[in-house]
Specification:
- This is UDP-N-acetylmuramoylalanine--D-glutamate ligase.
- One of its GO terms (cellular component) is cytoplasm.
- Cell wall formation. Catalyzes the addition of glutamate to the nucleotide precursor UDP-N-acetylmuramoyl-L-alanine (UMA).
- Its EC number is 6.3.2.9.
- The chain has three domains: about 10-100, 3-Layer(aba) Sandwich (Rossmann fold); about 100-305, UDP-N-acetylmuramoyl-L-alanine:D-glutamate ligase (3-Layer(aba) Sandwich), CATH 3.40.1190; about 315-445, Mur ligase, C-terminal domain (Protein-Tyrosine Phosphatase, Chain A, Alpha-Beta Complex), CATH 3.90.190.
- The N and C termini lie far apart (about 50 Å).
- It has helices at about 20-30, 45-55, 85-95, 100-110, 120-135, 150-155, 170, 195, 200-205, 225-230, 275-290, 295-305, 335-340, 380-390, 400-410, 435-445; strands spanning about 10-15, 35-40, 60, 75, 100, 115, 140-145, 160-165, 180-185, 220, 240, 250-255, 260, 265-270, 315-320, 325, 350, 370-375, 395-400, 420.
- The protein is an alpha/beta fold and about 450 residues long.
- Helix 1 links the parallel strand 1 and strand 2.
Length: about 450
Amino acid sequence: MNTLKQFPYEQVLVLGLAKSGAAAARILLENGKKVRVNDFKKEENNSTAQELRNFGIEVVTGGHPLSVLDDVEVVIKNPGIPYDNVIVKEAIHRNIPVITEVELAGLLTDGPIVGITGSNGKTTTTTLIYEMLRGSGEQAKLSGNIGTVASEVARESEPEDILVMELSSFQLLGIQTFKANVSVLLNIFEAHLDYHKTLNHYANAKAKIFENQTKDDFAVFNLDDDMVVQLVDQTNAQKIPFSATQPCKDGAWFDGNMVYFKEKPIIKRKDIVLVGEHNFENILAAIAAASLMGATPEAIRHVLTTFQGVRHRMQFVREFKDRTFYNDSKATNILATSSALNAFQQPIVLLAGGLDRGNDFDDLIPYLKNVKSMVLFGQTAEKIKAAGNMAGIERVEIVDNVEQAVQHAYAQSEEGDVILLSPACASWDQYRSFEERGDMFVRAVHKL
């Protein structure tokens, strides 16, 4: 078990529990820190709070009294808690640092870290890098937004372990010293503006992945995304581009037939089984990052000729009566759904809708050309219907939930159609997570 190194604080407030908060509290206690936990949920409905209290941690639940900041030297907040939260605002006012749990991960491990961020494609890219490294005999471990909490993985890691971390803008905004040996920035698209308020604030949060890198580190970046190209200028790391459209012989690139890393041929495009142009960019990023960490061309080829996607991200579910069903529940914004729609030539019955973050869906209209009908649900159903009507889609239905949507989609489909769940919205209006939403879709498909 690894211990915290160079963590200069003795009295810590953990704000918000969930998985990352509970992990941080336990690790801090193990390292002799004085820990206080504050969670808005009342204790009678909060088994994690009760468990931490049994460990001897001071726990305050059912609200956010400012007194929880008394004598505190640092706040470790749940990444999803916004910066206009009353405790966070007061901490900043008192000049108390506010960080996220991923900062602890960097202080707990002596091994290398590969950090992956971007608006879309993080989970797929992270999984590809992990599989490529494992296939090459490297001791890679998944952590962060995918799999286990980053600090828990780092706590148990060996110096030779490579931590492959999926990192959100929420996590990165709260780092001080955290550093990835290889950072990956996939793309920037307008997202999470309810949290970050402006696109620039959101992009700068993503760019913090470069902040502490040195000339001995690597920054893998998307040469085809203008905002990413601007942001990577901030890093001191060695810049490694990837591009699906232009040669970049110091990175990962494509000549129309063969994929290369630098001058080394890796795989023919036609041999890659993962569908979608957006996934091709993810593949190029993964090839670059994995190669820098020692993955072999043979292992990379094996992964790319067998890997068909992660759950809830363009996940093939089944073929039934010549209809093909795909679960893309992780498509929580317009760009992700646009990419999914671009992946198919067949007629599509689109299932979409979810949390209303205040945006319209006009940007989706150019990508609806293969959509023959739509079945919508959630808070944004009427807004997406308006976009569908503007795109000339004649059949648009609104239903109560994903399970009903599957039944209606199948009823209006024909042989040869793709039935695609790609919501273009977060799930929190009706479901606890995009995983829960996707699982409901999969169950409903199999019930057919």
